[in-house]
Design brief:
The chain is an alpha+beta fold. About 10% of the residues lie in helices and about 20% in strands. Strands 8-9-5-4-10-11-13-12 form an 8-stranded mixed β-sheet, with no helix packed on it. Bound molecules: zinc ion (2 copies). One zinc ion (ZN) binds near residues 138, 161, 163, 169 and 171.
Length: about 260
């Protein structure tokens, strides 16, 4: 017994010495503070935000919600003011609503790892997501159970308009992004659940119809931004345009 114990003890010493040897090559692990994680590059495509940070659980996006394109809804003193008369979405003639664009102070918290949630929470009235230029996406309703049809006429030439408190937003394809800043098949922004929003075409140029999408108005496949594939929403030319019967995933929050 005594001998065995001694052998064990000797083995322990050898083991310990080996450990000491390897310790000299061990590198220090730097623990990055959780408030300072790198923002995934796909979120850096949101060029209109005031700030974008990542705490490991949520991407926090702060925005003034000011469109970076001309609009008849800017005060006439603003350099981006431009009068407009002519056709808008669906071909109807534009008729200005009484509201004006007002700078906001909005904070979106979007889950870093977007995940399906079988509860599929209904999208609220107001902002349901954020476009690359920092402007809000709204759903297909003008008010509680009110269809959008009466409001379409007030979309400006880039298909956005402000509501009563001056929050500019897009219910349908944001034309400035799909024709100037991105493409018809490009990334346009994110909904609050972290799943990306794409334009009305796929990357091969085919038009996306509602019948190709699920009831949440999305589907899954690879995109240039997500080479491993992802669930994503598409804008289409038919109601509900962007979102159908709720979020596909677990929505984050927005505070104004
Ligand atoms: Zn609206
Ligand atoms: Zn798609």
């Amino acid at each position: 017994m005594k001998f065995i114990k001694m052998v064990s003890f000797f083995s322990f010493i050898v083991f310990f010495m080996n450990c000491s040897k390897t310790d000299t090559t061990t590198t220090t692990t730097i623990v990055t503070p959780s408030s300072n994680l790198a923002v995934p590059t796909v979120y850096l495509k949101i060029y209109g935000a005031s700030s974008i940070t990542n705490d490991g659980n949520y991407i926090t996006i702060k925005t003034k919600n000011l469109p970076d394109h001309k609009s008849p809804y800017y005060p006439t003193t603003n350099s981006l003011y431009e009068a407009y008369s002519g056709p808008t979405f669906t071909g109807v003639n534009f008729m200005k609503n009484p509201n004006s664009i007002v700078e906001q102070s909005a904070t979106y918290k979007i889950p870093v790892n977007a995940q399906v949630n079988t509860a599929h929470a209904a999208t609220p009235l107001g902002a349901i997501g954020i476009a690359l230029n920092g402007v809000a996406f709204f759903n297909q309703y003008a008010g509680p159970s009110q269809p959008l049809s009466g409001e379409i006429v007030s979309f400006d030439k880039y298909y956005g308009h402000p509501q009563q408190s001056g929050v500019y937003h897009y219910h349908v394809e944001p034309l400035y992004l799909t024709t100037v800043k991105s493409t018809k098949s490009g990334l346009l922004g994110f909904l609050l659940d972290g799943f990306p929003v794409y334009g009305p075409q796929e990357e091969d140029g085919t038009l996306v119809y509602n019948t190709l999408l699920d009831v949440y108005h999305g589907h899954s496949h690879k995109t240039v931004d997500y080479p491993n594939g992802t669930y994503h929403y598409h804008f289409t030319n038919e109601a509900p345009y962007l979102n159908g019967s709720g979020f596909y995933g677990t929505p984050g929050t927005i505070t104004q």
